[in-house]
Design goal:
single chain; alpha+beta; 2 domains; three-stranded mixed sheet; globular
């Protein structure tokens, strides 16, 4: 083939590839999106009751997928999103089933003290990860029950139990859901971590998850399993970290895992997949989690290491790193508004 023929062939191929590319881009997005939807359904075992429900969920999935694609195209973002198990939920649906912290921070509880025992601790480590100290149980999944408050309180109690006794014990969230019903706690309809600590104190302790396993639904209190004699861990009290003070929260977390409440009602939080979360969020705290460490990312961004209760397929194996030392005194997503920790 002479050089002229080779040139025309190259021009033809370039033109064909350009045409093919434009054809692909002009195709309706529903075709490739439907494929992504089917793959996602297979991955998460999603089955719907009828074609109408499937079509409705597809539209929600499509909107979330398009949002994720657009967000992840921003190379300057410090975190990424993904089509996780919540990709066919609206934010309102998601919040009503997964968040359950009731903001009752102005209602006093009898066993809370104004003391902050870590207030004089000035030399705190640059980084802390209580997982490496064996003080954090594996990530759990609250399912479709708004009892995040129970998981947050239990995570903090598991942590201080390990620190004080040397034993890491997976404790029972279901006991709190079933039995802590006389105060501000409403099982799967929400509650507070301080209220959970109050129950553990007055009950003489909390039993193990193995003895009183999690069911993810409101149940009747099993008084035999919840009896003091069955308690595997106990606390004497709890303290609130001074509000709106990230350094005070850092002082506390340097010494033990801490329960916190955050505003988790956003698409970015729902679909978070990794990196340091710096996204837009408010301070209408609605979700209980546990801070189990802090540190600094390779690019210099400070973060809180937060254990969630949405299973290991969400976030970084069930954890999220949230930006620390922000300009708002309340912290990112209100993380510094109402932290508390149990004492032994």
């Amino acid at each position: 083939m002479d050089s002229r023929s080779s040139t025309w062939l190259a021009i033809f191929l370039l033109g064909f590839l350009s045409w093919a590319s434009q054809l692909t881009l002009s195709r309706p997005i529903s075709l490739p999106m439907e494929v992504r939807y089917q793959q996602w359904m297979a991955q998460y075992g999603r089955v719907y009751k009828d074609p109408i429900e499937k079509a409705r969920r597809f539209n929600i999935f499509k909107a979330n997928a398009e949002y994720i694609d657009s967000a992840n195209a921003n190379a300057g973002r410090k975190y990424r999103l993904a089509l996780n198990q919540f990709a066919d939920f609206t934010n309102d649906e998601f919040s009503s089933s997964r968040n359950g912290f009731l903001d009752l921070s102005f209602i006093g509880n009898a066993e809370s003290t104004s003391e902050f025992r870590y207030g004089n601790v000035k030399d705190v480590p640059e980084a802390v990860d209580w997982r490496s100290q064996g003080a954090v149980t594996p990530v759990k999944d609250q399912g479709h029950c708004g009892c995040c408050w129970a998981f947050s309180a239990i995570a903090a109690t598991e942590g201080i139990t390990k620190i004080s006794t040397g034993n890491l014990i997976s404790l029972s969230e279901q006991e709190l859901v079933d039995c802590d019903t006389n105060g501000n706690e409403h099982a799967c309809k929400g509650g507070t971590m301080d209220g959970a600590f109050d129950f553990i104190i007055k009950n003489g302790g909390i039993t193990t998850e193995a003895n009183y396993p999690y069911l993810g639904t409101n149940g009747t209190c099993n008084t035999q399993k919840a009896a003091t004699a069955e308690a595997a861990a106990s606390i004497k009290g709890y303290e609130d970290v001074p509000a709106n003070n990230e350094f005070a929260l850092m002082q506390a977390v340097a010494n033990q895992p801490v329960s916190v409440a955050i505003d988790a009602n956003s698409s970015d939080f729902k679909l978070y997949a990794g990196g340091v979360f710096t996204g837009q969020c408010g301070t209408n705290i609605d979700h209980g989690v546990a801070v189990v460490g802090y540190g600094t990312d390779s690019d210099g961004t400070s973060f809180w290491l937060v254990k969630n209760s949405w299973g290991t397929s969400w976030g970084e194996q069930g954890y999220i790193r949230m930006q620390r030392n922000v300009t708002d005194a309340q912290g990112l997503c209100g993380i510094a508004i109402h932290p508390s920790y149990p004492t032994v």
